[in-house]
Write a structure and sequence with these properties.
2 strands; 6 helices; Four Helix Bundle (Hemerythrin (Met), subunit A); 3% strand; 178 residues; globular; mainly alpha
């Protein structure tokens, strides 16, 4: 299916993105690959919803590739000294928690749908990382504020996601699969 092909394309972009930041040190190539990844994420989701191509595999594969890109971006930016190393630990803990939760629910035959918390956090994440790639030497106060805002949004999204899953309105977020 086309959405899963686009997700695979995004997966293939990840090592090229990392190479462009770490070795090529090409801001514009890095930004282009990062934005291409984000754009294909939007397009594959739109195609899947519009043409009813949502699959259980895609529901797991797509967010996994998103998380891999996000983790790669944070690790690369930490390696080149743009973001603090603790941000890697924070993002890893948050994403691993989400992956484990999603996997447990998937095993229990519960499919977790994307929600506005996750979509808003992803857009915010891409925006902050985009800014930090373009302006790696940005003022420390501005950088700290951006990183603080990013952490806050990721925490809120994670809490909102988990509250929906354990809350009474599970139908908004997930349903039983066959």
């Amino acid at each position: 299916m086309i959405p899963n092909i686009l997700t695979t394309f995004r997966l293939i972009i990840i090592p090229f993105f990392a190479y462009s930041i770490l070795y090529e040190k090409s801001i514009w190539l890095s930004v282009s690959l990062f934005l291409l990844s984000g754009a294909t994420d939007i397009v594959d989701g739109w195609i899947a919803r519009k043409y009813n191509m949502i699959t259980d595999v895609g529901s797991v594969y797509d967010p996994l590739v998103d998380k891999l890109m996000q983790i790669t971006a944070v690790v690369c930016l930490a390696i080149i000294g743009v973001v603090p190393w603790w941000l890697i630990a924070f993002v890893l803990i948050k994403e691993i928690t989400m992956i484990i939760t999603g996997s447990v629910l998937y095993i229990k035959k519960i499919v977790v749908h994307s929600n506005w918390y996750g979509k808003a956090a992803t857009v915010f994440f891409y925006t902050i990382i985009f800014i930090l790639i373009i302006f790696p030497d940005i003022n420390d106060g501005v950088k700290d504020t951006l990183i603080g805002m990013l952490v806050g949004v990721l925490v809120l999204a994670g809490v909102g996601y988990l509250l929906k899953i354990v809350g009474k309105n599970k139908g908004d977020v997930c349903d039983k699969r066959a």
